[in-house]
Each structure stands twice: as C-alpha cells, then as structure tokens.
Design a protein that fits this description.
Elements: E1 4-6, E2 9-13, E3 16-20, E4 31-35, E5 44-49, E6 54-60, E7 62-69, E8 83-88, E9 94-97, E10 101-107, E11 113-118, E12 129-130
Antiparallel strand pairs: 1-9, 2-3, 4-11, 5-10, 5-12, 6-9, 6-11, 7-8, 7-10
Length: 136
C-alpha cells in the first residue's frame, strides 16, 4: 500500500467557515495525539512503524511530512526514495501513512499543530523505529 492524501475542503459563507474531510474514514483509529515542533527549523524524524499505520492532518499552520518506504529495517540506508506532502490546516487534508514507512515532520509556519492518529493504542505493540536524520 502506498501513502495517499485524502483531500479535505472548506466552505465559507456569511456565518463563517467549515473545514471538513468527508472522504476520511476514521473507523481504524484507536489513538489521537498532537505534534508541535519547537521551531520551523526543527525536523522531527526519522520515525516509523513496520506494523502500525498513521494518519496526519494539520490543525493549525502547515507541515511538510516526508516519507520513506523501508525495505530493510536492519539497514535503513537501503531505502526507497523520499516523498513529501504539504498539509495545511485550511484544507483538512489527511495523509494516510501505511505500515512500513518512516516519517520526517517539519512545521512550515510558527505555532503549527499536527494531529496524528494511529490504529494501535499506546503500548499495544512494540513497533517504533527511530533513525538519525542523516540516513537520507
């Protein structure tokens, strides 16, 4: 399975604005948390999962989320090519990251906030892998 961007949208009228994503099915989500990087210069990564899948959406500001498919978890230097997605709070796009990928997350605007969703509860499985930024 490949990562995919599930497009959201917004509707504005005289009453205000509604931001929505009617195509995102959240039935697999078991856990939700928020990520706020300390600055726009900070890159959070590389971190990923063999089994767990994630979904990300910007709730404030914007983020660049870069993903790499890991072919060999013992030797992550032999990876696939990085692919990047921009998530903006104004569209409520949801990025689906299937199992087998690592991510690097960077805020593009100060005070940005990213909602992360997972299909496993905290501690349900041991499936967290972290690698130095220099692997790419």
């Amino acid at each position: 399975m490949e990562p995919r961007l599930i497009k959201g949208s917004a509707h504005t009228d005289e009453r205000g604005c509604i931001t929505y994503n009617n195509d995102f099915n959240a039935s697999s989500v078991k856990r939700i948390y928020f990520i706020e990087n300390k600055s726009i210069d900070f890159q959070r990564g590389w971190q990923g999962h063999k089994i767990e899948q994630r979904w990300f959406t910007a709730t404030n500001g914007s983020f660049e989320v870069t993903l790499i498919k890991i072919k060999d978890w013992e030797n992550p230097k032999s990876t696939g090519f990085p692919i990047s997605f921009i998530l903006e709070h104004s569209t409520m796009d949801v990025l689906h990251v299937p199992a087998g990928y690592i991510s690097r997350i960077q805020a593009l605007i100060e005070n940005s906030k990213l909602m992360a969703m997972s299909d496993y509860t905290l501690g349900e499985i041991q499936d967290e892998y972290r690698f130095p930024l220099e692997i790419v």
